[in-house]
Design goal:
The structure is a homodimer of 370-residue chains.
Chain A (H helix, E strand, L loop, with lengths): L11 E3 L8 H7 L9 H18 L5 E5 L3 H12 L5 E6 L2 H12 L3 E6 L8 H8 L6 E5 L1 E2 L4 E2 L2 H11 L2 E5 L18 E3 L13 E5 L1 H8 L12 H8 L12 H17 L1 H21 L15 E5 L6 H12 L1 E5 L8 E5 L7 H15 L1
Parallel strand pairs in A: 1-12, 3-4, 3-5, 5-8, 8-9
Antiparallel strand pairs in A: 2-10, 6-7, 9-10, 11-13, 12-13
Helix pairs in contact in A: 1-9, 2-9, 5-6, 10-12, 11-12
């Protein structure tokens, strides 16, 4: 039979994720599969937990990659913590805040929201006002809004949430590995990420971490977690302890990939990785502005790894993306929701975040636009 | 940093899955990652759907791999079909039937069960009796019980379920790709599998299929599916249609692996693959019995790909498994639930199901036991 894999283009992935994958991670994916209860595989699992804790800056014992993509991590955090009629506040300024709302509503929570214009950050004073006098079980926010390129002030929000007594739930799908994530420092109780952004591993896993306080709440639920696959009370028994209990068969080779991706980050040095993201971002913004293009987000709230660029009047944004893909083998992303047709999203995530890639894109964009 | 991946043993995987992975599938896993909205990746998705339909023997439009391991497929089938207080009957003769019960209860169904001794099959006359006069929305059963090695009479059960008007939900995690699965022929409405058994792709994906009748029921639910990640109403919009709608980022490289694994099965010929499983099984049973060992399951209900062998009196079954792993680089499985310590589970799944592997195991077992 014809095999489509023989003709896959090597595309420079500069969209909103997946990002480019280093050769070492590709190699890791094809290491010999071990059994999910094999003692040597369990060693690798232990290392993954340790490396994740270090990158997430947390001492949380319950830190592990969930067997699904980033959205499964979001689902995990909500489904383990929410019980019917729990009051939950979601701070929304993009697609992923909206997705949180959708998930929490489906789980029967009493969901309240605070919405901000897409492309602008969550305003801490409005959060403080909303929380004064109210009592929520969970307050949730996205650190790096992949749909807009906005960095939300998660540290400041964390202080307000902590004072209110609520659990603090943060999405770091796009930020982890690209900018500092301070799980313990921000007082976060539940946090999830994804492998296909700044970790530069293909999509398929979602690292999560829960504070001891969150673990206690999950343990003492009135009813069982209404999601067997993602029930942390059971998953943890496979990921921890002297005697591991089989829950579901872990995605072995994807975990090899994540392990290798984490090793690469620590081998390079976490701070250096962050600097590389920032330098690539600076180069990109300077280049785009020199071409007369305009960024969506104000400089102080811009993410280095996700750059939203306004589509100039009269330009067919989809045609530009097609040309970049077909003629230059570069992928960039489209806008979502109210920003469809209005922005491009240029990702500088993980392995992709390099000056050479930025220059290649700028050259290609010039060729296509001018 | 020290890299544990450099010292992974090449283990002959003869446990209950994962099975050995062919070189072509390892290579597929490390093909260049494409974006999840890339037109060429969508071509590969379409081929995966076509190949799955052919292997599952179904015309169901809603046929695709869910982004999680086999248990996520189980969760998908139940969470999409069950609404609170729905009457559900689960036929149980092993771990995976019990797991179905756990999932259905968590989702708020009124769960009734019919249990059979582990190691024996579901009895169709008892099913018929149970269904006469009762009215269930769903009747669920496991085709190949991985915990015991029993093949349940899913065809005969299907006839009874169809007459009752209930939806028929079948687990084919361990059977698909090793013995015939006749989705449409058996009148199945929801079916799931896993990649790490007879498909010989690493764990991480769960192929599922839903009949048009099941799709209609999912579309007309009173309340939204209480699981955003696995909501088929949304997932299908990414997997089908002229214009694909982003839901979550698909596990790109795992999907390459599944595609390649399916191509290998069709290149070899589905019937030949089934014969290879049966031949390996026959050789194994003959060899084990020649050594004086005894099978758990009666010949007429034995699965070729999962062989439960009774541990002889006085033998430390865990020590045998350790020696096989450490001295012979072979993994076999332990018993589960009431069969802990009483059986070994020897898998002959997919790429593993070869005479040479059987002979290697038999030789090693002799060395360890005698």
């Amino acid at each position: 039979m014809k095999n489509l894999l023989n003709n896959i283009d090597e595309v420079l992935l500069m969209g909103p994720g997946p990002s480019c994958v280093p050769m070492e991670v590709y190699r890791a994916l094809s290491c010999s599969t071990l059994g999910h209860m094999d003692y040597y595989f369990i060693k690798i699992m232990d290392e993954i937990k340790n490396l994740l804790k270090e990158l997430m800056r947390t001492k949380n014992r319950l830190t592990l990659p969930v067997s699904g993509t980033g959205s499964a991590g979001m689902e995990t955090c909500f489904v383990n913590l929410i019980e019917r009629d729990d009051p939950v506040l979601i701070l929304i300024n993009g697609v992923f805040g909206k997705r949180m709302e959708d998930i929490a509503v489906r789980l029967g929570a009493k969901v309240d929201t605070l919405e901000f214009e897409w492309g602008t950050p969550v305003m801490t004073d409005q959060v403080a006002e909303k929380l004064s006098g109210s009592s929520y079980k969970i307050v949730a926010v996205v650190h790096a809004e992949t749909s807009t390129g906005v960095r939300n002030p998660v540290d400041a929000i964390g202080q307000i949430v902590r004072e209110s007594g609520a659990l603090y739930l943060v999405d770091t799908v796009t930020s982890l590995g690209g900018i500092a994530v301070e799980t313990d420092g921000w007082g976060v109780d539940a946090l999830y990420s994804g492998t296909q952004k700044c970790l530069s591993c293909p999509p398929g896993l979602s690292p999560v971490t829960f504070s001891d306080r969150a673990v206690q709440i999950i343990r003492e639920r009135r009813v069982k977690v209404p999601n067997w696959y993602l029930d942390m009370n059971m998953v943890i028994q496979y990921w921890e302890g002297a005697k591991r209990v089989y829950h579901h068969t872990a995605p072995i080779n994807m975990l090899y990939g994540l392990y290798q991706a984490l090793l690469l980050i620590f081998d390079e040095g976490v701070e250096k990785v962050f600097e590389r993201h920032q330098a690539a971002h600076n180069r990109l913004v300077a280049g785009l502005e020199a071409m007369g293009l305009e960024m969506l987000v104000s400089p102080e709230y811009r993410l280095p790894m996700l750059n939203s660029v306004k589509v100039p009047d009269g330009v067919d944004e989809a045609a530009v993306r097609s040309k970049l893909r077909d003629e230059h083998l570069i992928e960039i992303g489209a806008g979502l929701g109210p920003l469809v047709g209005k922005i491009w999203r240029i990702g500088l995530m993980g392995h992709t975040a390099r000056i050479g890639n930025v220059d290649r894109l700028l050259g290609a964009l010039k060729a296509v636009l001018l």
